[in-house]
Design brief:
- Keywords: Hydrolase.
- The protein contains 5 helices and 7 strands.
- By secondary structure, the chain is α/β, with parallel strands linked by helices.
- It has a 7-stranded mixed β-sheet, with helices on both faces.
- The radius of gyration is 15 Å and the shape is globular.
- The termini are close together.
- The model has no long low-confidence stretch (mean pLDDT about 100).
- Bound molecules: adenosine-5'-diphosphate.
- Adenosine-5'-diphosphate binds near residues 18, 135 and 172.
Length: about 190
């Protein structure tokens, strides 16, 4: 499924983001970049082989780029793709979405928007053309999947008015089920 917003395309795909051929992939991180489970663990493992080593690299990058040992919603940290370079991935952009625990409101939505926008703006700054996102906050953080998908589409549309180098934004869904659910939500 594909949407065109000016010079920007928003596409929904199914697959494993650690092998997805985009110049930048986004990690649904926690604020300390601990990469303990879910897509964060998968990305750390695929990048460095050793998850603890990638956590060390991420925390060091966070100190250099943010000057703190945690990130807020909207703040992002960039680390190299390492072994994922074989798929054409250059950067991992770490962002933190809201914790929902099954609930959804305007505040959660704003935090998710900030998390998505922060990563999109950083990709623009890096001169990236193609960026791929997982369904941030729809896993361990328990935000309603449909709302996450809708918020992605809205945020990408908003970003299209300021986008410079970014031309393609992918939402990469891991399972066939979630992919099909997303198509329904977005009206496919
Ligand atoms: P959060 O804590 O932000 O909810 P999770 O890692 O638990 O983050 O999940 C975010 C989404 O990423 C979930 O929908 C999950 O199914 C998905 N996911 C997990 N592994 C991968 C992967 N390798 N590629 C793409 N998506 C993945």
């Amino acid at each position: 499924m594909e949407f065109e917003f000016g010079s920007l395309r928003f596409k929904v795909a199914q697959g494993d983001i650690t092998k997805f051929p985009a110049e930048a992939i986004v990690n649904a991180a926690n604020k300390y970049l601990e990469h303990g489970g879910g897509v964060a663990y998968a990305i750390a493992k695929a990048a460095a082989g050793d998850v603890r080593e990638y956590i060390r690299i991420s925390k060091e990058a966070m100190r250099e780029q943010i000057g703190r040992d945690y990130i807020e919603h909207g703040e992002v940290v960039v680390t190299p793709a390492m072994k994922m370079e074989q798929y054409g991935i250059e950067y991992v952009i770490h962002t933190v979405g809201p914790y929902c625990g099954g609930r959804w409101d305007e505040d959660k939505k704003e935090k998710l928007k900030k998390a998505i926008l922060g990563a999109l703006r950083k990709a623009d700054e890096l001169g990236v053309k193609t960026i791929a996102f997982p369904a941030i906050s729809a896993g361990i953080y328990g935000c309603p999947f449909e709302e996450v998908v809708k918020t992605f589409k809205e945020t990408v549309e908003e970003f299209s008015r300021e986008a410079k180098s970014v031309k393609e934004v992918y939402l990469v869904l891991y399972s066939r089920d979630s992919y099909e659910q997303a198509l329904k939500v977005l009206g496919g």
